[in-house]
Amino acid sequence: GLNSPFCISIAVLIIGFAGAYTQTGLVDTRPVTGPMVEESTYHELQADSEDDGTRPVSGARIVRDFGSAIYFSVITWSTVGYGELYPVTHARWIAGLETILGYIYMGLLVSVVVNAVFLRKNKQNNQCDQEDGECR
């Protein structure tokens, strides 16, 4: 089955990526329901961004809180990517790496689950053979 080191490594990686996103910041395009982030934060990111279409849209704000970073990390890891948060500058490379690792880990997870199902089925079949063909 799933072992603890596998699950712990996923959690550590997601939290580690979230920590990186709190440092780089994420552009939040959701409607503002609370106080706006300071305008200087927006301009700071604008200055750091390359002029390649990755600059934040007008009215967007930069978030650096851990809750948003964890949320973004989980949806990136699972390759869902809703689009209301997105990375800019070098955080795009971090998100790309996280997506690739997410694919790899999801593949490993599927293989572990399928293997466990087949092992259980094989064990049941062996019991049937040993007990005059009756399965329990």
From TrEMBL:
The segment(s) forming the Potassium channel domain are 65-117
Residue ranges annotated as transmembrane are: 100-119
Alphabetically list the UniProt keywords: Membrane, Transmembrane, Transmembrane helix
Q: Does the keyword Membrane apply?
A: yes
Q: Which InterPro entries does the entry mention?
A: K_chnl_dom
Q: Can you name this protein?
A: Potassium channel domain-containing protein
